[in-house]
């Protein structure tokens, strides 16, 4: 099949494909969105692309036109023969039948440089997949994904707005974030109930801030946002530190304990985390 001829509606009809709600199957119809994803991901002939959830291969076909290699990970048994039939003849296409949450991405990336991930993600696994990829220390350059609008807004949020939370801090600790475009439900079949956004996460060569104890940083971030309406003082107490030492830690990093987590930049979270670390270590 010519890559230009891969069209979602035609293939769904040809194979009498039945959509699975539980696998988050909303396939893209809109050509302009497909092109914007490929352009937004800045795909070129040097790139080794990993696509999570190719569906019937509509986005895959566009990626194959530009990239050096495209490896797809698809969970649905029914889509495997369709993808093999439609795209199997292309040497640069590789298909892995597995759950993206279970695969070892290092085995897929091997020694490849220029690794980029691109996906119209099944919404039910968006956050676990992002966390797996970011915390897994994999050496990809960027992750360009279509996700639910509200999740993209949380990922992209800056301090002092209601969307800013633990996910914003986690993603921005590892990546720069760029919103590529909004996508309305009419661009899919079947139509989802929510609006979507295509967002690119560019992995930084090192985390945005250097901290003495990464786990402590994320414990403090989580505790702070779990009790959004409470002061930092109240949430930091959960790290098991005495009142006296907590006061010392806040004094040392010069952060007002009456502030709330949603007002802190990542740099301030890091400073607070390192102060708590030091006070704990010296006692
Ligand atoms: N890329 C296609 C498109 O844009 O039209 C399909 C996108 S659809 C939103 C999500 C795809 O991810 C489906 O093909 C679904 O079967 C697949 N999928 C769902 N859960 C998965 C998982 N855990 N691992 C890999 N693929 C998964």
UniProtKB/TrEMBL annotation:
Please give the Pfam families that the UniProt record associates with this protein: RrnaAD
GO CC annotation terms, alphabetical: cytosol
Q: Where does S-adenosyl-L-methionine bind?
A: 26, 28, 53, 74, 99, 120
Show the PANTHER family listed in the entry: DIMETHYLADENOSINE TRANSFERASE, DIMETHYLADENOSINE TRANSFERASE-RELATED
Q: What does this protein do?
A: Specifically dimethylates two adjacent adenosines (A1518 and A1519) in the loop of a conserved hairpin near the 3'-end of 16S rRNA in the 30S particle. May play a critical role in biogenesis of 30S subunits.
Family recorded in the similarity comment? Belongs to the class I-like SAM-binding methyltransferase superfamily. rRNA adenine N(6)-methyltransferase family. RsmA subfamily.
Protein's recorded name: Ribosomal RNA small subunit methyltransferase A
Organism expressing this protein natively? Clostridium taeniosporum
């Amino acid at each position: 099949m010519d890559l230009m001829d891969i069209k979602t509606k035609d293939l769904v009809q040809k194979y009498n494909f039945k959509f699975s709600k539980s696998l988050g199957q909303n396939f893209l119809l809109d050509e302009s969105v497909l092109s914007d994803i490929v352009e937004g991901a800045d795909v070129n002939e040097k790139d080794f692309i990993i696509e999570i959830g190719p569906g019937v291969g509509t986005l895959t076909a566009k990626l194959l036109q530009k990239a050096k290699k495209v490896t797809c990970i698809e969970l649905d048994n029914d889509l495997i023969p369709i993808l093999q039939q439609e795209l199997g003849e292309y040497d640069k296409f590789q298909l892995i039948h597995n759950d993206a949450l279970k695969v070892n991405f290092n085995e897929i990336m091997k020694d490849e440089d220029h690794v980029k991930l691109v996906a119209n993600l099944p919404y039910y696994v968006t956050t676990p997949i992002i966390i797996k990829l970011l915390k897994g220390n994999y050496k990809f350059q960027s992750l360009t994904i279509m996700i639910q609008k509200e999740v993209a807004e949380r990922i992209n949020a800056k301090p002092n707005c209601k969307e800013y939370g633990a996910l914003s801090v986690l993603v921005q600790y590892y990546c720069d974030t760029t919103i590529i475009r909004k996508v309305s439900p009419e661009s899919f079949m079947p139509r989802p109930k929510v609006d979507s956004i295509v967002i690119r996460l560019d992995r930084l060569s090192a985390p945005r801030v250097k901290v003495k104890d990464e786990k402590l940083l994320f414990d403090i971030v989580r505790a702070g946002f779990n009790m959004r309406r409470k002061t930092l003082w109240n949430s930091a107490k959960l790290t098991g530190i005495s009142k006296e030492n907590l006061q010392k830690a806040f004094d040392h990093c010069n952060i007002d304990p009456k502030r709330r987590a949603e007002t802190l930049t990542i740099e301030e979270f890091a400073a607070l985390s390192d102060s708590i670390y030091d006070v704990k270590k010296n006692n």
